[in-house]
Amino acid sequence: MIVPLPTVKCSLNWERMRMNYRLSFRSTKSLWVTNLSQQCSRGSSGLFVPPCPPLSPEKVREFQRFITLSKKLLVMTGAGISTESGIPDYRSEKVGLYARNARRPIQHSDFLRSAPIRQRYWARNFVGWPQFSSHQPNPAHWALSTWERLGKLHWLVTQNVDSLHTKAGSQRLTELHGCMHRVLCLSCGAQTPRGALQQRFQVLNPTWGAEAQGLAPDGDVFLSDEQVRTFQVPSCLRCGGPLKPDVVFFGDTVDPAKVDFVHKRVKEADALLVVGSSLQVYSGYRFVLTARDQKIPIAILNIGRTRSDDLACLKLSSRCGELLPLIDPH
User: Fold this and answer.
1) Is residue 109 part of a domain?
2) pLDDT at 301 over 50
3) Structurally, how many domains does the chain consist of?
């Protein structure tokens, strides 16, 4: 006997849908060593994931119905999808950076105005890069890539800069805040791979060494001012200008053309699914407002409260990597 899926309790038009982490870095000539504590090893996927209740079979069925009814699904992901890959986030309750200490991410204006601040940023990023770049997609990333391949996913927008969706094979993708795997010159705009810059750092700093206490989001670690004072930062090979990762720092704005592009993709969609985001940052929240204005049904999968819980017809507090692979995209 086939049990019908329960009706999702929502007033929106469903007919429309139907149609102390220790890291040390040492260099001696060409020898580079990165040591992470066992806690921060690649396999400790639960380290930065907040606790959540067990999966509810009823909620799974409601979520399956939401996905089944959508023919042009737009998905927006945030840091919560990557915490299961071992990458910490900022806002997760008890385990995010904001809950663990008083440190805050670098501000865009500070990076632009101060060479010492850029030096400190790149020294920390240099130490953290081998670990950050080694992270791999988890089952949630692979599930969304599969949905795209099967024609379920109309577009994917990510607020993350970790390249895990790309590693999983997603192509219908907008990286809203850029990607740490690319570097830009602030003067001429030349773009280079972040891995190539790592090699230039090594050449310039053959005897420099540092030991960090603490791992932060986006490839950052914690170093003292004394540790970074002698760190040498390369300039653009083309024009000699300062280099910056191709990401939107806090206090900066997303390219208006990219924002317009995503607004168009939202308006084309017949459902919006938010995965792993508290939506506290306006750059992502605005697309939920667009979906609301277009009367597009919204579902949210995130552990903990979000800024848009009252706009969603379905809210799930589960691990992304546990729930998404359970859903049949057809």
Assistant:
1) yes
2) yes
3) 1
Q: What tens digit of pLDDT does each residue of 31-51 get?
A: 333 333 333 333 345 678 888
Whether the per-residue pLDDT at 102 is higher than 60: the answer is no
Q: Which long-range contacts (CB under 8 A, 24 or more apart) does 204-209 make?
A: 204/232, 204/233, 204/234, 205/27, 205/126, 205/231, 205/232, 206/27, 206/28, 206/29, 206/30, 207/27, 207/28, 207/29, 208/27, 208/232, 209/25, 209/26, 209/27
Binding site feature residues for NAD(+): 78-98, 159-162, 276-278, 302-304, 320
pLDDT at 7: 41
Is the residue at 95 inside a domain?
A: yes
Q: Ranked by mean pLDDT, which of 35-39, 54-58, 150-154 comes out on top?
A: 150-154
Strand partners, 271: 73
10 inside domain: no
Question: For residue 311, what pLDDT is reported?
Answer: 97
Q: Which residue has the tokens 């306006």?
A: 282
Catalytic residue among 177, 181, 263, 330: 177
pLDDT, average across residues 91-117: 73
Q: Is 110 among the domain residues?
A: yes
Is residue 12 within 8 Å of 295, Cβ to Cβ?
yes
Per the prediction, the chain carries an average pLDDT of 84
Q: Give the Cα separation of 250 and 239 in Å (integer).
A: 26
Determine the Cα–Cα distance for residues 191 and 246; give it in Å rounded to an integer.
Answer: 8
| Residues in the annotated binding site for Zn(2+) | 185, 188, 236, 239
Domain with residue 112: its CATH number is 3.40.50.1220
Residue 209 lies in domain: 21-326
Binding-site residue numbers are 78-98, 159-162, 185, 188, 236, 239, 276-278, 302-304, 320
- Interatomic CA distance for residues 65 and 273, integer angstroms: 13
Average pLDDT over residues 266-286: 96
Catalytic status, residue 177? yes
Q: Mapping DSSP to helix (H, G, I), strand (E, B) and coil, where does residue 85 land? A: helix
pTM: 0.84
The predicted pLDDT at position 159 comes to 96
